[in-house]
Amino acid sequence: MQILTKIDDICRELRKVRLSGKIIGLVPTMGYLHEGHLSLVDVANDNADVVVMSIFVNPTQFAPNEDLARYPRDFARDEKLARERGVDYIFYPESDEMYPAPYFTYVVTEQMAKVLCGVSRPIHFRGVTTIVAKLFNIVQPDVAVFGQKDAQQAIIIRQMVRDLNFPIRIIVAPIVREPDGLALSSRNVYLSSEERAQAPIIYKALSEAKAAVEQDLAEAGQIAGQIRQTILTTPLARIDYVEIVDDRTLQPVKVVEPGTFVAVAVYYGKTRLIDNVYLKER
Ligand code: PAF
């Protein structure tokens, strides 16, 4: 495994890989790897000959009041885990390598970036699409793998790839969960033991909603109401949103139909957790 920090160096290395006819897979991350990220590496290895992982805590997707400075980092551990899991290249740039001053250009997916997490994080998806577009141009992967846990992010990236004609296949890999159902996230380390004990209610509420839909409940308002009620049985929970939306447009639906999923964001203390479940597959 090679670790490269400069754009010119990774471009030079990957040009050779491409010329040898190998398929390149990209797994973009912000590091502090857990099994969720590593499952993306497995999917990339199944779909590509060479796997590139980027590790970059992207400042443009954090608002000034968010957790950029305290976002967990441990490059030595990430390096070891990535190597053991079969990553071929880590791209690990500094901030001024990715955003040399002056920096003015952003990629925006307009209204898709303004709903769900975009309501409380208005600049977040502009930062995500900008850095992912830059990584796509630098790495020029054939396939890129994202996690279903960040469902809105994955849907927005698919849309960006389609709108801007990136010749890249996007694969979305399933959510990896703790045994009690909590979705893996780098931010789980912020939870106190009390918060951690209460947080699995999120997945329980989503699973009950899915079961209710299987029993023919279809009215979105009613399903969302039940999810809220269940989550609020844990006293430390503060709901940011519970939305039942279409997986192509991210617009709310009134009745569950193929492609409908429920997405939630819930605060436990200062930690904002997100999760989602398909109510009906397409
Ligand atoms: O999902 C993440 O970790 C980040 O949003 C991403 C896609 C690596 C862009 O910074």
Helix and strand topology:
Blueprint lengths: L1 E3 L2 H13 L4 E6 L5 H13 L2 E6 L19 H11 L3 E3 L3 H4 L18 H4 L3 H16 L3 E5 L3 H13 L5 E5 L19 H6 L2 H14 L5 H12 L5 E10 L13 E9 L2 E10 L2
Parallel strand pairs: 1-4, 2-3, 2-5, 3-4, 5-6
Antiparallel strand pairs: 7-8, 8-9
Helix pairs in contact: 6-7, 9-10
Bound molecules: pantoate (PAF).
Describe this structure in words.
It is a single chain. The chain has 282 residues and is α/β, with parallel strands linked by helices. It folds into two domains: 172 residues, HUPs (Rossmann fold), CATH 3.40.50.620; 92 residues, Pantoate--beta-alanine Ligase, Chain: A,domain 2, CATH 3.30.1300. It is built from ten helices and nine strands. The strands form two sheets. The protein has a six-stranded parallel sheet with strand order 1-4-3-2-5-6, with helices on both faces. A three-stranded antiparallel sheet has the order 7-8-9. Strand 2, helix 2 and strand 3 form a beta-alpha-beta unit. Helix 9 packs antiparallel against helix 10. The structure holds pantoate (PAF). The site of pantoate has 10 residues, from strand 2 and helix 6.
Number of helices: 10
Q: How many strands appear in the DSSP assignment?
A: 9
Overall structural domain count:
2
The CATH topology label of the largest domain is Rossmann fold
Morphology call: globular
Within CATH, the superfamily of the largest domain carries the name HUPs
Low confidence ranges: none
- Distinct small molecules: pantoate
The description of the largest β-sheet is: 6 strands, parallel
Strand content: 15-25%
Strands of the widest sheet, in order across it, are 1-4-3-2-5-6
Mean pLDDT: 98
Secondary-structure element order, N to C: EHEHEHEHHHEHEHHHEEE
